[in-house]
Each structure stands twice: as C-alpha cells, then as structure tokens.
Design a protein that fits this description.
By secondary structure, this protein is mainly α. The chain has helices at about 1-20, 25-45. The protein starts with a helix and ends in a 7-residue tail after the last helix.
Length: about 50
C-alpha cells in the first residue's frame, strides 16, 4: 500500500506540472474517457449500468 501511495503522489506531482502546460485540457479529456471506460467495464460484469 505504501508503494501505491507513493505512486499516487508522483502522479499528483505530474498532474501539477501538466496543469502548467497548454495541453492539459486535452490530457484531462483523455483521462476522463479512460476512467469512464474502465468504470463501465468494471460495473458491466456485475450487471449494473454505470450511469
């Protein structure tokens, strides 16, 4: 779990740097799509729609 937390921290640091760049909106829409697809595939197995 500690390794996982340090991974999250490094991701957050990366996001902080990304927010200063111009391509952050494109990046966030890409992340949002991936998260939505992952959540749908995870909930699909349980027979419950994500929405």
């Amino acid at each position: 779990t500690l390794r996982f937390l340090s991974l999250i921290k490094s991701i957050l640091d990366l996001i902080e740097k990304m927010e200063k760049s111009a391509s952050v909106r494109k990046y966030w829409s890409m992340v949002g799509n991936v998260v939505e697809q992952t959540a749908r595939s995870l909930t699909f197995g349980h027979g419950q729609p994500y929405n």
